[in-house]
Design a protein that fits this description.
By secondary structure, the chain is mainly beta. Helices cover 5% and strands 43% of the residues. It is globular, with a radius of gyration of 21 Å.
Length: 82
């Protein structure tokens, strides 16, 4: 590493080992995750499909997320504010 002003090197100037969650990381859900069974629109099939998935909350909105049983594409249904 190259020495910089005040005797500090590159990583110390950028914040060192502070943990910042990566884009793909999710928070751990509780022991009883809420499930959802219903219809959602599959963009690939261009039709409504029955699916079973789990419920997530992001920015005060609840989403049911699952997999299309016909083609395997991810489907999402907005459930509303919590």
């Amino acid at each position: 590493m190259v020495e910089v002003a005040h005797g500090r090197t590159g990583p110390e100037l950028r914040g060192g080992d502070r943990h910042r969650p990566h884009r793909g990381e999710r928070q751990q859900e509780g022991p009883m995750a809420e499930s959802y069974t219903g219809e959602a629109y599959c963009v690939k099939c261009k039709a409504k499909r029955e699916f079973t998935g789990h419920v997530e909350e992001t920015n005060g909105r609840r989403f049911a997320k699952g997999i299309c049983p016909e083609c395997g594409t991810k489907v999402t249904r907005i459930l509303g504010k919590a």
